[in-house]
C-alpha cells in the first residue's frame, strides 16, 4: 500500500511539473505570454493599414508583442487561419461576415446594429471567434459624382439621382455590372435609366469622372479618391447596400491568453470614420506612403498613442 502511495505521489508531482513547464512555455516570469499576437488582413490598401493600427495600439497600451503579416488573403482564407490558430486577429466587415461566411440574408428590418449582433452571436457559437466593437466606419458600396455637379443638379440621395438619370452617363468596373447585388439591383431598387453606361477599370474610373467623361460612378465609401477628388457620395435612401462596418475578429483562445486584449481593442471603437479612413487610404494609394507609417501617424495625430 505504501509503495502504491509513493507511485501515485510521484505521478502527481511529475504531472504538476509538466503543467508548470507548459505554463512557463507560454508565459514569461512577468505573467505576459512570451509569444507574439499575429495580426493579418486582406490584399488591398485599407487592409494593409488596419493591422498596423491595431498592432501599434496594442503594443503602446500593453506589454504584448505583435507581429503583422500583411496581405494573407481574402475572407475565407483569413477565417480559416483564425480557426486554425495561424493568426490571432484580422479586421472584417459585418456584411461580409453575414453574407459570405455565415451565408445569411439581409432582412428588410436589419440595421447596422442587428447585423453586427447576428454575426457576433453566430461567430462565437459556430467558430468560437469574437467580434470586438466596430472601429466606426462603414465601407460599403456607394454611388458618387463630382460635388459641383451634385450641387448643380440638386442631388442628395440616390432617389434624387434616379429622377434625372436619363441625362447622365454611368461608369463602373465590370464586376459591378455583372453582380446581382450590383448594377442590376441598383436599377431594380431605384429605377435608374442612364442614357449610357461604360465599363471602366477600377484604376481609371475616378480619372474618367474627374475628367467629366462620365457623370456618375460606383465606389466604396472609404476609397481614397473620394476626398482627393472632392466627390459626393449620394445617400442610399432605400438601404440597398448592406452595412459593412469594420471590426477586429479575435480567437477566443487568444483573448484567454492575453486578458487585456479585448478591452484594448475595444478602446478603438468608433475612432475611425469613413472620411478618416478614406484619407488614410489616399496617403497609401496616391501619395505612396507606407501603411506602417500612415498607421502610426494616424494614432499619434488622433491622440491615441504618444
TrEMBL record:
Signal peptide: none
Gene3D superfamilies to which the protein is assigned, alphabetical: Osmoprotection protein (prox), domain 2, Periplasmic binding protein-like II
GO MF annotation terms: transmembrane transporter activity
CDD domains named in the record: PBP2_osmoprotectants (cd13528)
Domain called ABC-type glycine betaine transport system substrate-binding: residue spans: 36-301
One Pfam family here: OpuAC
Cross-referenced InterPro entries: ABC_Gly_betaine_transp_sub-bd (IPR007210)
Gene Ontology cellular-component annotations: ATP-binding cassette (ABC) transporter complex
Name the UniProt record assigns to this protein: Glycine/betaine ABC transporter substrate-binding protein
Organism: Polycladospora coralii
Source taxonomy: Bacteria, Bacillati, Bacillota, Bacilli, Bacillales
